[in-house]
Write a structure and sequence with these properties.
The structure is a single chain. By secondary structure, this protein is an all-alpha fold. It has one domain. Helices cover about 65% and strands about 0% of the residues. It has helices spanning about 15-25, 30-40, 45-50, 55-75, 100-115, 125-145, 150-160, 175-200, 205-230, 235-270, 270-280. Helix 3 (about 45-50) packs across helix 9. The longest helix has about 35 residues, at about 235-270.
Length: about 290
Amino acid sequence: MEPIPIAEPSLAAADLAALAAAKRALEKQPLAMKLASAVGMPIERLLARLPAYAHETIADATRRALDASLRTALATLGAPAPRIEERDPSERLVPSAKPRDWLHKVAVATTGAAGGAFGLIALPAELPVTTTLMFRSICDIARSEGEDLGEAEARLQCLAVFGMGSSAQDEEADFGYFIARGALAQAVSKASSELAAKGMAAHGTPALVRLTNAIAARFSAQVSEQIAAKSIPAIGAVLGAAVNTVFIDHFQQTAHGHFTVRRLERRYGSEAVQTAYRTIESTPAGPGKRSRA
């Protein structure tokens, strides 16, 4: 269920600055370009070198990884935040303690170092671990922006972040954050209702399966880019760690942007935030990237 906004006439200066930072995070350089900088080679060329069976392996591993995250990541994250009705209303409008982005980066870099020498062969073992660590980081970011992780909808919004990061292969990449978010909105809503009603017993129900599949279809394109970056012969532990660090940073930035927008929507309403978002000038595009207003 979408949060009920507290209507205010316009965004305060500090909130407008936060929204501008969120837009920079969400309208960021595509993952493929970041990975290309890390490995010194165009990802498109490396994708073309992947064997024919790679895409099926990646798709299957991605679905398994997202499913594992849904079942286990929140259970190991720690005690949920106080219920919304138990909090002072003002606590829902401002960020709480800063998330530990660096700690999750170190953990994901370690898995990248371990799998760097094995490439695609290591994917079924490495990706669930990496994705679960990333999911925990996304949940940490969500909580820092006032999300109540005791709510089913907030938990699924964390999972949905994996479907929001634009990819060079994503046909909707140039249409912006709100289009990508809107494409998942109905699936998130239906799955949230089932999860709220049935708890973890809802795992495997049609709504949750449809949501996981929708996210996996988007996330697998970015996993393909990550695996392509690791397909360089003798990539080694150092470069493997660097690739994984770029990978988690990409989704951490997406999460920071997404949950900042949601926090501001709780205060000002969706329409006011979207209007302000569109008036903020996009950062200049880098090579190969078009600006989006």
